[in-house]
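Deliverable D2.4 — example input (structure tokens):
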């Protein structure tokens, strides 16, 4: 099962980077993830080369900063040193839907929205603003797996990711060790809330400042098997 097989709201940079070929081309910008494979297939030639070179990466630096959440994404511009006219700034080379520098009758502008504004056709989800690594321990088998997940995801969404490692993930109760009444107790997680909302803080930055080994700040989620007859 891959990330494209499940319904996701958020993607990690690592997941985006896996889509880096002409037949499977994703990019991210301004925390949006676009699948532009169709665009690549529809436009052959030099105008797709800059995009292919950037496949699987973040290209926010191609565009102007957003002034508000409803602001349209626009390509960076600069003043041409020869003509003193404002034109798109494309040091990587002009790409699909960038108008030519000189007026020409050969340029087809009937595409409507440029691809970087066409959410309806290319948008697949959000790029996580902060990922975190967690360890998931199956108490029944003793198996432990490490996963990088978006901090914005609920535990239920993380459970869907874990299906790739355990098809019966829904047959377990997810718990973490938390203080309660003066002692530490394994407490079930609310599957509709994020880890932070469940009282599992992301302490990565604090531990990095203290130069403590990363293994110490990866929280462990314990999976307790439910004998619910769901496994057939």
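Example output (designed residues):
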């Amino acid at each position: 099962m891959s990330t494209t097989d499940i319904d996701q709201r958020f993607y990690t940079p690592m997941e985006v980077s896996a889509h880096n070929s002409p037949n499977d081309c994703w990019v991210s910008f301004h925390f949006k993830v676009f699948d532009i494979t169709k665009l690549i297939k529809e436009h052959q030639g030099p105008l797709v080369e800059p995009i292919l070179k950037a496949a699987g990466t973040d290209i926010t630096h191609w565009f102007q900063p957003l002034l508000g959440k409803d602001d349209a994404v626009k390509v960076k511009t600069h003043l041409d040193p020869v003509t003193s006219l404002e034109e798109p700034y494309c040091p990587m080379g002009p790409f699909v839907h960038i108008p030519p520098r000189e007026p020409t009758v050969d340029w087809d502008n009937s595409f409507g929205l440029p691809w970087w504004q066409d959410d309806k056709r290319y948008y697949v989800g959000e790029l996580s603003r902060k990922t975190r690594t967690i360890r998931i321990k199956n108490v029944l088998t003793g198996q432990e797996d490490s996963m990088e997940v978006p901090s914005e995801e609920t535990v239920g969404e993380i459970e869907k990711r874990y299906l790739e490692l355990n098809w019966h993930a829904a047959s377990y109760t997810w718990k973490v060790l938390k203080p309660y009444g003066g002692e530490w107790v394994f407490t079930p997680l609310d599957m509709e809330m994020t880890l932070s909302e469940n009282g599992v803080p992301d302490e990565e930055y604090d531990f990095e400042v203290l130069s403590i080994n990363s293994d110490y700040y990866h929280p462990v989620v314990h999976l307790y098997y439910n004998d619910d007859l769901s496994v057939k």
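The chain has two domains: 10-127, 131-225.
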